[in-house]
Amino acid sequence: MSDSKGTGSAPSTATAWRPPDGRRLLQLALAALWLLDGVLQLQPLFFTGGADGLSGVLAGTAPGNPHAVARSITWNASVVDHHAMVANTAFALIQILLGFGIAWRLTLKPALGASIVWSLAVWWFGEGLGGVLHGAGTPVAGGPGAVLFYALLAILLWPTDRAGSTPPFAAARATGLRAATFVWVAVWTGLAILALFGSGRSPQGIHDLIDGLSPGEPGWLRAIDRHAGTLVSHEGLAVAVAVAAVCLVVGVGVFLPVPLARATLVLAIVTAAVIWIVGQAFGTILAGGATDPNSGPLLAVLALAYWPVHRRPAVGGADADAVPLPVAVA
What we know:
The protein is 60% helix and 0% strand. It is mainly α. The relative contact order is 0.11. Mean pLDDT is 86; it is low at 1-6, 9-15 and 311-330.
């Protein structure tokens, strides 16, 4: 006599959990970055006021900005200075809650929505609009502000799917292919412009940027900085042009056939890694005093959100991989 109860329960148990898809994995990566931000915010120096504390970090983003922007930043810094312990505890808690909220499916949407609002507030009051209004927003240093990419990823990874479409990459599932393509081109074109017109184009701009990262770093990272600084000494404009050229190639990659598109995405990830190591020193996490890992990891996550994952229908009998991505736009 067979055990019908046992055999009947096996299928439901087996199908109760499904592994996360690509978009969910990227959401979890975003959650991990928010959690890292929250942990970094718990460093002792941020619980103190004064020039060396959190208020000093915030106030340091004001110079060079238009008067209204600079005044709002210094006002915010003064409030934080008078309530450093409470303010920094709140900042850390918010970021940790955002991380856990994105990681938990039941709170994913409200957490992503809250992360957009928080990111824009931090971009204004914590990053001084990324320095883009006074020419300091070179992408090598993290311009136009790393926190903007948190907001952008929250939009692109929003957990909804447009009806009747099978987008070729995760970033297009919620926004649609046209909007996602526009975002990609706008991001990398913007980075190219910042590279050409930011402070890094001066002869010693990139050298001074790298040299300023050394204090507090481990010896092996200082050695990398030293060699990189020597290599780019008096070559700021050449480096700026090279970075801009790479950004433009990456930007047009979304229009290329799938194999070439993947190659440009690999180029984007490699570029993000080089910038993160050489130009950002891992966000100065190893030196202490960093509130986030900077833009390098976020650019890598952004590139992965555009990785082609679906073969599109053939057009006129041609192989799907030979069809540029925008052809799939209705």
